[in-house]
Write a structure and sequence with these properties.
- The complex is a heterodimer of chains A (about 450) and B (about 475).
- With about 450 residues, chain A is α/β, with parallel strands linked by helices.
- Chain A has helices spanning about 10-20, 35-45, 55-60, 75-90, 110-115, 125-140, 175, 220-225, 240-255, 265-275, 290-295, 310-320, 335-340, 350-365, 445-450; strands at about 1-5, 25-30, 45-50, 70, 95-100, 120-125, 140-150, 155-160, 185-190, 195, 210-215, 235-240, 255-260, 280, 300-305, 325-330, 345-350, 370-375, 380-385, 410-415, 420, 435-440.
- Chain A has 4 domains: about 1-125, 3-Layer(aba) Sandwich (Rossmann fold); about 140-225, Regulator of K+ conductance, C-terminal domain (Alpha-Beta Plaits); about 235-355, NAD(P)-binding Rossmann-like Domain (Rossmann fold, 3-Layer(aba) Sandwich), CATH 3.40.50.720; about 360-455, 2-Layer Sandwich (Alpha-Beta Plaits), CATH 3.30.70.
- In chain A, about 30% of the residues lie in helices and about 25% in strands.
- Chain A has a 6-stranded parallel beta sheet, sandwiched between helices.
- In chain A, helix 1 crosses helix 14 (about 350-365).
- The two termini of chain A are about 20 Å apart.
- With about 475 residues, chain B is an all-alpha fold.
- Chain B has 22 helices and 2 strands.
- A two-stranded antiparallel ribbon of chain B has the order 1-2.
- In chain B, strand 1 and strand 2 (about 385-390) form a beta hairpin.
- In chain B, helix 15 packs parallel to helix 16.
- Classes of the chains: A alpha/beta (about 450), B mainly alpha (about 475).
- The interface of A and B includes residues 41 and 45 of A.
């Protein structure tokens, strides 16, 4: 597939990195920063074009004539929109995806985006990050929470502690503990190493357990792995950027007590106009006096979401020191995310992964609903739709008979709005949404191929 | 250095090269000239060697690092020159010493076209074909071919690719994927070769000569199946066709690809390098032809134009065919043409020399310094095709030029130490460094009379020229071997 990516920023680079390593991703990357392009060209097997992303001559040089997909992820909403319109009008590019930050554009009716702006899909990384952060805040104890099947099913990563009733016991005892609840543990990571879980696996302290269950059962399963924290009431956010503002807005609507720290007075003023109940504080998130004055030791969650990785990490550590119950930090650099796993910061959240997860399904062929990266991109969880045709390798077969690659587990199935946790003899039927956990990303294409419908029936 | 990975890639490339023994093997079998055994042994030997290197290491899957890339390219060309020499050593007719065989094979692979053989017309056809074929393989680069047909090299393929393609700016890929780019280039190369062979055949060459000469024309190599080279055919039509294809082979193959892909010729006319290339050829032809007429070398003006034009094109594109022996020409002309071969063809072509684009950049830089004297505060970017050239490229070109001159001078002096006279030494180094072929003095026709140490020096010089100095020299620096 010929793909043109406009903008070699964080999102553009991450997607380039992933797709250029896969067969069939022929990428041309466009940016105005020539030095950055030559750096990336040396690192990946791609072509680069230097120029302004929305100019027709630049797009033509990038091969827009026969490209199948253009992904506009420059810094400017307007450049992205103009680039998509240009591609649509001049080159009839079949698929156009743009990153649009300003929510004002989505407020119009639904055909405006497609017909008015010429964009087929919008990705809005800030929105995704906000939602995921909100879920993490609302699910104390979880390391990662991913939605599938429109929120009916969730995949949760949790660290096991000795106070959890199941810790130190065989996995199959879960059935006894929770007789009415179905769940599937899809992976366990012990000291960074993946373990294929089966009924005889014993959960140890500090294991990272990934499980899938219907959303309403998640809390009960989590409580098996560790004693659950009290529900969250008070939240302090550091940084009122796009994400900070949206997060505060979403949380105050759910009746949490939110405090938002922003060091730039103008921005703080601006934000305070739009927020109803949130207390906006002007100041430095790493200012000990300010934190103490605002009762940091009474906070259930402290979440650092400024643009600056280092500031986030340090202020989160300080907040923990001063008594905040649970602290989270946004970390963009993968290397940092690895490092601070061993510090007192409870959750290091990488917005990069979330963004990529939201874009990847649009690139993968096959009937995919969602693709999420896990464990810093080494594993993936996908939601695929099983479609019936004569060549289908999944429909009409039981789980046992499906030739899944090593380390791949079918965690849950959504069938006509009913969540099924499958057993080895469960038979997959037409239009099932199947949620799979793929331990090694290199197998992802094999898994996707299973769900591919042969070309004759399309 | 990841030696096992290097062995794996080298082994694979050798296995691939061993396949090239099969066509001459077939000819040897068909002609029953006793060379069947030679090629059978060479094929088997190389296959075995390659398999021994590849099989134990085939599971290595790390990515190539920068150093591995350079080392692979240099080692591969060395191994190739040696294994390409195997049939020459094994064959009874011609009887060749090891140094002669290596020289001949290196000369073929680097598309130099300097030969130590005489009496070509009486050699077995399989050997003759084999000589033409290694030129053809060396022309577009056998590593580029490997990148094109086998994805085994992975991301590191780009690294190898760049080390083998000539020119100062190697970041301009035709397609996003390196394998696709390599494939496109080889397809264009293959297509033009087929076209050349067809037209040569139609113009009166035998099928064997047509294929053989199409190989050495497109590679700008210059090997021929006859001692008299193109003069053997004594046909203005054939000379015209050979000129045309040498001209095409000296142009950037990316432009050929674009012309075919977009079905338009406009890229040629908008490319400043092609314009400079044609201008250089035009001016040199004008001087040559005028001098030939003025000195009365030929009794007829048409002959002066015919041979003048042919020798200019064949020398500047570093092919090295002969349509008329330069021995009888006014003394300044052969020297002028050899100087012209320093310019060579365009970047990304199969031609040798420093490449037109580098010379153009150097001259423009000189021009800029003059302009700067007149307008001390002016901002004067150097532009190519309406785009400013980054300073890093210009600096690299200066570095290249300095090393080229230094290599030329020091190797020429070494040649004199090895026993050549001054004209022979300088012209032989120029002819091998530029991958041209014939030189002046003792080496005007062939390199038979050069001493053995001299042949080794020249073999090294050919490789130096083909890999455009840097790739080979970097491996020879102590810093390369330090961790």
């Amino acid at each position: 597939m010929k793909i043109i990516i406009l903008g070699a920023g964080q999102v553009g680079t991450s997607i380039t990195e992933i797709l250029s390593r896969e067969a069939g991703g022929d990428i041309t990357l466009v940016d105005i920063d020539e030095a950055r392009l030559s750096l990336l060209q040396n690192r990946f097997d791609i072509r680069t074009v230097h120029g302004h992303a929305s100019h027709p001559d630049v797009l033509r040089e990038a091969g827009c004539d026969d490209a199948e997909l253009i992904l506009a992820v420059t810094n400017s909403d307007e450049t992205n929109i103009v680039a998509c319109r240009t591609a649509a009008f001049l080159f009839h590019t079949p698929k156009k995806i743009a990153r649009i930050r300003a929510t004002q554009y989505f407020a119009e009716n639904s055909s405006f985006i497609e017909k008015g702006l010429g964009v087929d899909h919008i990705i809005s990384p800030e929105q995704i990050v906000t939602t995921e952060l909100q879920r993490l805040i609302e699910r104390p104890g979880a390391l990662q929470v991913l939605d599938f099947a429109n929120g009916r099913i969730q995949l949760v990563a949790i660290k096991a502690y000795n106070d959890g009733p199941l810790v130190g016991h065989h996995l199959r005892e879960l059935k006894v503990h929770l007789s009415s609840i179905e769940t599937r543990v899809v992976a366990i990571y012990r000291q960074g190493q993946a373990i294929m879980p089966d009924g005889n696996t014993v959960i140890e302290e500090n294991d990272e357990v990934f499980f899938i269950a219907a959303t309403e059962h998640i809390r009960a399963v989590m409580s098996e792995m560790r004693k659950l924290d009290k529900p969250v009431h008070t939240i302090m956010l550091a940084g009122a950027g796009n994400i900070g503002f949206r997060l505060a807005e979403a949380l105050e609507q759910k009746n949490y007590k939110v405090k938002l720290i922003e060091h730039n007075p103008e921005r703080a003023n601006e934000v305070s106009k739009h927020l109803k109940r949130t207390i906006v504080l002007i100041g430095d998130a790493a200012d000990e006096e300010l934190l103490k004055m605002e009762n940091i030791d009474g906070m259930d969650v402290f979440c650092a979401i400024t643009n600056d990785d280092e500031a986030n990490i340090l202020s989160a550590m300080l907040a923990k020191q001063l008594g905040a119950r649970r602290v989270m930090s946004i970390v963009n650099r993968t290397a940092y995310a690895d490092l601070i796993e061993r510090t007192m910061i409870d959750i290091a959240y990488s917005p990069k992964q979330a963004t990529i997860g939201s874009v990847l399904p649009k690139f993968r062929t096959g009937a995919l609903e969602a693709v999420h990266s896990l464990r810093l991109g080494t594993a993936e969880a996908i939601e695929a739709i099983a479609l019936d045709d004569k060549s289908s390798k999944v429909v009409g077969r039981s789980i046992d008979e499906i030739p899944l690659p090593k380390g791949t587990i079918i965690g849950a199935i959504l069938r006509d709005d009913e969540v099924i946790i499958p057993h080895h003899d469960t038979v997959i039927v037409d239009k099932d949404h199947v949620i799979l956990f793929v331990q090694e990303k290199k197998h992802i294409n094999e898994v996707v191929a299973l769900f591919q419908v042969s070309a004759f029936f399309i | 250095m990841q030696s096992r990975l290097i062995f794996k890639v080298l082994g694979f490339l050798i296995i691939m090269f061993s396949v090239s023994m099969l066509p001459p093997l077939f000819i040897g079998w068909y002609d029953k000239d006793g060379t069947l055994q030679v090629f059978l042994q060479s094929w088997g030997g190389l296959l075995l060697l390659g398999a021994l290197m590849w099989l134990p290491n085939r599971r290595q899957s790390d990515e190539l690092r920068i150093r591995d890339g350079f080392l692979i390219v240099v080692l591969f060309w060395l191994v190739l020159a040696l294994s390409g020499a195997v049939p020459f050593i094994l064959s009874e007719d011609p009887q060749m010493s090891i140094v002669d065989a290596v020289f001949e094979s290196m000369s073929g692979l680097t598309t130099t076209g300097a030969t130590v053989l005489t009496g070509l017309d009486h050699l077995p056809r399989s050997i003759l074909y084999y000589r033409q074929q290694i030129q053809w393989l060396g022309g577009m680069g056998i590593i580029v071919l490997a990148v094109a047909i086998a994805p085994v090299l992975g991301v590191g393929g780009m690294q190898l690719f760049r080390a083998e393609t000539p020119g100062p700016m190697k970041n301009n890929k035709l397609t996003p994927r390196i394998t696709e780019t390599a494939k496109a280039l080889w397809l264009v190369y293959f297509g033009l070769t087929v076209l050349a062979a067809t037209l040569y055949f139609a113009a009166g060459m035998s099928l064997f000569d047509a294929i053989g000469h199409s190989f050495s024309t497109m590679a700008t190599g210059g090997f021929s199946t006859h001692d008299a080279s193109i003069a053997y055919f004594n046909s203005p039509l054939i000379e015209g066709l050979v000129m045309l294809f040498m001209l095409l082979a000296g142009i950037n193959f990316s432009l050929h690809y674009l012309a075919i892909h977009r079905r338009s010729l406009r890229h040629y006319f908008f490319d400043s390098e092609v314009k400079a290339y044609l201008l250089i050829l035009f001016v040199l032809s004008l001087i040559t032809i005028s001098l030939l007429i003025y000195k009365g070398t030929f009794s007829e003006t048409t002959s002066a134009i015919r041979y003048g034009l042919f020798q200019v094109i064949t020398t500047v594109t570093s092919t090295g065919f002969t349509a008329h022996s330069l021995n009888y020409w006014p003394g300044v002309l052969p020297v002028l043409l050899i100087i012209g071969s320093f310019v060579g063809g365009c970047a990304g072509s199969t031609a040798g020399g420093m490449k037109v684009i580098r010379v153009e950049l150097l001259l423009r830089q000189g021009r800029r310094e003059i302009d700067r004297l007149l307008h001390p505060s002016a901002v004067l970017p150097i532009k190519l095709n309406k785009r400013p050239v980054p300073d890093s490229v210009i600096n690299a070109v200066w570095g290249f030029f300095a090393l080229y001159v230094a290599s030329f001078v020091s190797l020429s002096l070494l040649m004199m130490v090895s026993g050549s006279d001054i004209v022979t030494a300088f012209s032989a180094i120029a002819a091998t460094l530029n991958n041209l072929g014939p030189g002046l003095g003792e080496v005007a026709d062939n390199y038979r009379s050069i001493s053995d140490p001299g042949k080794w020096i020249l073999s090294f010089t050919m490789l130096l020229g083909r890999l455009e100095l840097f790739s080979l020299l970097v491996v020879l620096t102590p810093a390369f071997w330090k961790r």
